[in-house]
Amino acid sequence: MYEYKEEDIVKEILGESSEIDESLSNVSDEEFSSSIKKTLNNLKEDLKKLEILRAEAMQEAMQDGFMVK
Amino acid sequence: MKKISFQIGCCGRKMVIEAFPFASQDGEYMTCAETTLWNILSYYGARYPEYRVALPSSGLNYMMSSLILKKFGFGSKIYYRLIKNKTKESEFNFKRWFHYYVESGIPFMVGIKFDNKKIGHAVTCVGHGKIQVKLEDNKAIKIDGIKVFNSADFIDEYVYMDDNGVPFEINKFDEFKVPLYKKIYIDASEAEKIFLNILKDKYLGIDNLKKYGNKFVVRIFLSTSRNYKVGRFSGNTNEKMKNLYINLKMPKFIWVCEIGTVDAYKNKKMMGEIVLDTTASIGDFNELLLIRYPGKILVKLKKDNEQNLKSKLMKMYRKEVEKEFDMLETNLMEVDNV
């Protein structure tokens, strides 16, 4: 896995943020965390479905796969 | 179209030509399976010295050809079209995953099945045909009243090196094998799921583009970080953004999802992008490297946790980040008369 060395490259090159997103400051940490968790769980579910789809495709390929000549 | 430079000798002169390897089959020692592998391995062999060319024999099935690619140091990925359990979604998926690799400029092996037979033909896919922007509602993904169209659905024609035909021919596809760099752990189907889930996220997603319209196009592709940086650096952007892009630390390969309004896409401009590390394990946004929207940019570090992410999101506004940027076109080159 790739690791970043820089602390904050955006700040280093572009400077400080030009404004702060006030709408996010009204969002509690719990609310934000649960939203991120929801996205991660949805992704997990999608990846599980993908695995099933792949297994089905490989099964079909084993049964009905064709030779290329 | 994908091409590479070859040095040739002609009438005592050294010349350099830009082409894609092509060989015809003789039906005895070399069938389409071998010539397709030869095409692919010649291309990679010419481009990267660590891959060398070898010639196997007779026809091959999908597993055999995949093993040969693996023997040459690739992490071969097989995609097979569902026939018995086919659904509308499985067909959309199969076509899109195929397209993402074409858009990535990766030449790969394609199997075309002859009707009702156990035999097919192998060709090398090297590019795509004309783009026709068709906004088909049944193919759009709906996110909070926003319709997201996939640029993969705008292309129907793909270009092949076919040893039974002429070079740069147009045809269909039934299965495909992609020779990937061995350290790419996230494939096209997984990258697509990650991008779509990030786009659906309330804070990280397409909500950030809501004020610019309700119809967007996504364009997904794999790129070397080198090509990506060349593209972003040579694009029409300010010096600070160029400096930021070239200084980003990235793995050798990245997945990129560009997002733009339909009009921006037609003008080869994009408004947002999500970049993934192909070498990361999926989960907890380990794979996320960068998110950009008009006026906002976020470079995610591996150590960033949810709290960190929130504070970074709050401070992602930067006036240097333009509303639109040039679509990355360093993977394929445009040619006439295809």
Order of helices and strands of chain A: HHHE
Ends apart, CA distance between termini of chain B: 9 Å
The secondary-structure element order of chain B is EEHHEHEEEEEEEHEHHEHEEEEHE
Secondary structure tally: strands of chain A: 1
- The total count of strands of chain B amounts to 17
**Count of runs of 4 or more consecutive helical residues of chain A:** 3
Unreliable parts of chain B:
none
User: Which structural category fits the helices and strands of chain A?
Assistant: mainly alpha
**Range of strand content of chain A:** under 5%
- Please bin the fraction of helical residues of chain A: 55-70%
Q: Uncertain runs of chain A with pLDDT below 50, 5 residues or more?
A: none
What is the global morphology of chain A? elongated
What structural class do helix, strand and pairing data of chain B support?
alpha+beta
Mean pLDDT of chain B: 87
**Biggest interface: chains and residue counts?**
A-B, 48 and 81 residues
Q: Could you describe the largest sheet of chain B, including whether it forms a barrel?
A: 7 strands, mixed
In quaternary terms, these chains amount to heterodimer
Profile the largest sheet of chain A.
none
- Overall mean pLDDT of chain A stands at 83
CATH class of the largest domain in chain B: Alpha Beta
Would you mind describing this structure in some detail?
The complex is a heterodimer of chains A (69) and B (338). Chain A is an all-alpha fold and 69 residues long. Chain A is built from three helices and one strand. The mean pLDDT of chain B is 87. Chain B is globular and about 65 Å long. In chain B, the strands form four sheets. In chain B, strands 6-7-11-12-14-15-16 form a seven-stranded mixed beta sheet. Chain B has a six-stranded antiparallel beta sheet with strand order 3-10-4-5-8-9. The chains are: A mainly alpha (69), B alpha+beta (338). The interface between A and B is large, with 48 and 81 residues. Strand 1 of chain A pairs parallel with strand 5 of chain B, so a sheet runs across the interface.
